[in-house]
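Record type: monomer structure entry
Structure origin: computed from sequence
Chain ID: A
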Amino acid sequence: MIFTLDILEESKITNYSKLNCNMPDGKTMTIADVMTKSVISVDSTMNVNEAAKMMEDAKVGAIIVMENNTPVGIVTDRDFSAKIVAHAYPITSPVKQIMSSPMFSVGSDDSVRSAADLMHERGIRKLPVIDNDKLVGIVTASDIVNLLAVSTEDDMRDIYFHSVVKIFSNYSPYN
């Protein structure tokens, strides 16, 4: 069974400062403000060949794997080379065999910064957005990088200091 959310959004990027994670009304920038709401999900029994064709047709880099309408894993374009080719799995293998699981995810109310931190810490580029066990979108490293294109100097300074503090907290003699 294939599930697709086809919700269109007007624009992911607006002119206000986003990386500072504050919008003009004082609201914290959340994942809901930047996520892509159109997501492809497939049943865990679908074979990897069909999944790859679906990803190519939709021009996406990831699909969410579902069991009983619940997200259980993610398959990215990288999984095809790292798992199928490296292990010589047949193209008839189920996507469940190559999916990344447990799957890291964020909620639509989480901050953009927390998603960026999770991506950095776990070395991942795509995060499904899950609310109440329902798949509602996906946020990618590219979505976050696109925010950099419209950031202000203050945003960049804030990110820089946040990153420096995070990196050097590991080396603090006070930890």
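Annotation 1: The beta strands are 2-4, 40-43, 62-67, 70-76, 126-131, 134-140.
Annotation 2: Residues 1-27 have pLDDT under 50 and may be disordered.
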